[in-house]
User: What shape does this take?
Amino acid sequence: MTALATGCSSGFDATARQSYSPGDGIQAGTGDLRVVSALVVSPEDSQDGVILMAVVNNGEQDEEITSIEADEGEVDYTGSHTIPAGETVLFTADSDPSAIVRGLSTKPGEAITVKISFAEAEPISLRTVVVPATGDYASITPAAEPSPTVSESGATPSGSVSPDPSSSPSTS
Assistant: This one.
């Protein structure tokens, strides 16, 4: 009887023991925090891209995201900055929170580096890919960039107060 040898390796470098992301995005972590399925979705004719990801807090204390940056554009990060203890927070095009890369110079198929900084934990930097807004991602489009408010008398910067026409002196 002949024994069959298999090509399985063992130890810490075995392929079966290595971490991998089964989805389209990538994963990275620090301490009790993990970022999973991270990628950027951008329409072919756009200079904006939506950061899709899940941030998992396996710790016993809330954590705060202090910033999200990209090496290819400016990130417009809106909504909640808290990652509650024991919970997962999803970032999508219409979620709270959300993150849009504005002025994206990277095109679909190319790589981009995204850095997520936290109040207490070490930052997570990950190199992920920009995918086209087609197929499963066709409905994922970046929100329009906020623009200044316009009044009848002309442009008014957001947050400023326009004079109330009803309080003008009467000429009768």
Notes: The chain has a mean pLDDT of 81. The chain is about 0% helix and 40% strand. Residues 32 and 140 are 29 Å apart (CA to CA).
